[in-house]
């Protein structure tokens, strides 16, 4: 498989800060091997919140090319990348993205949504969970939320920062969030300068409609 490197740039002119992330893409019909439009939006949020990222324990789910996770690591987060244990080529792609950025000590582990394997059960504490366009195939929605719910129950103050490309107004997760004791905050894209078709020096997200959410434990359950 032929690999391509793609560069994303993040800059704050006022603070004179800049980060560059190189990711590895493979042009074949596999979900995890190229950058989806939601990933630069999540990465932009991480860049906007980089002062909160430093020193935090971060897990990216469905990492694929790992743009958000790699940026979080470059901003000082203690990052673990993950993708399905059934997709070793995606896990290898995560490692290639780490290597392209000189981040050779980032753990890459196999976590399959909805499956309680050793890698998930043995995870150290987590503060922030990342996921860009995990909610792609509706058959996976509950498995994703089950995994996130488990992680948040193990880490009661943890948050799931996720971006989602709207494909149908009928594909909502509200009922599943309620079922699994979670609540959702919608984050306006213009609040972190992501309301643009071109982010991070790329041509993404284009004209796609992207939403940003923060999912937490339902306060009614936390208070019990």
Number of strands: 9
Which class do the helix and strand fractions yield? alpha/beta
**Strand portion, in percent?**
25-35%
Low-confidence stretches: none
- The gross shape turns out to be globular
Strand order of the largest sheet: 5-4-3-6-7-9-8
Mean pLDDT across every amino acid position: 94
Radius of gyration: 16 Å
Number of helices: 8
User: Residue share in helices?
Assistant: 25-40%
Largest sheet: 7 strands, mixed
Order of helices and strands: EEHHEHEHEHEHEHEEH
The rounded distance between the terminal residues' Cα atoms is 52 Å
Notes on the structure:
The chain is α/β, with parallel strands linked by helices. Helices cover 29% and strands 26% of the residues. The chain is built from 8 helices and 9 strands. It has helices spanning 38-48, 50-53, 67-74, 88-100, 118-121, 141-154, 174-179, 219-222, and strands at 3-12, 17-26, 57-60, 78-83, 108-110, 128-132, 159-165, 182-187, 210-217. The strands form 2 sheets. It has a 7-stranded mixed β-sheet. Helix 1 (38-48) runs parallel beside helix 3. The protein is globular. The protein starts with a strand and ends with a helix.
Summary?
The chain starts with a strand and ends with a helix. 29% of the residues lie in helices and 26% in strands.
């Amino acid at each position: 498989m032929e690999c391509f490197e793609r560069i994303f740039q993040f800059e704050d002119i006022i603070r004179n800060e800049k980060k560059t992330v190189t990711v590895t893409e493979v042009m074949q019909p596999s979900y995890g091997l190229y950058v989806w439009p939601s990933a630069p939006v999540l990465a932009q949020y991480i860049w906007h919140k980089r002062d909160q990222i430093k020193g935090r324990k971060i897990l990216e789910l469905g990492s694929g090319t790992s743009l958000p996770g790699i940026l979080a690591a470059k901003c000082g987060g203690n990052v673990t990348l993950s993708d399905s244990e059934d997709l070793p080529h995606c896990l290898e792609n995560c490692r290639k993205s780490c290597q392209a950025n000189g981040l050779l000590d980032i753990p890459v582990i196999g976590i399959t949504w909805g499956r309680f394997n050793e890698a998930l059960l043995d995870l150290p504490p987590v503060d922030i969970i990342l996921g860009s366009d995990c909610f792609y195939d509706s058959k996976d929605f509950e498995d994703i939320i089950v995994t996130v719910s488990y992680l948040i129950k193990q880490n009661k103050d943890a948050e799931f920062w996720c971006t989602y490309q709207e494909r149908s107004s009928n594909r909502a997760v509200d009922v599943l969030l309620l079922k699994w004791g979670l609540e959702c905050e919608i984050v306006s894209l213009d609040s972190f300068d992501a309301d643009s078709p071109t982010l991070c020096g790329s041509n993404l997200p284009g004209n796609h409609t992207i939403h940003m959410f923060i999912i937490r434990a339902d306060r009614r359950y936390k208070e019990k």
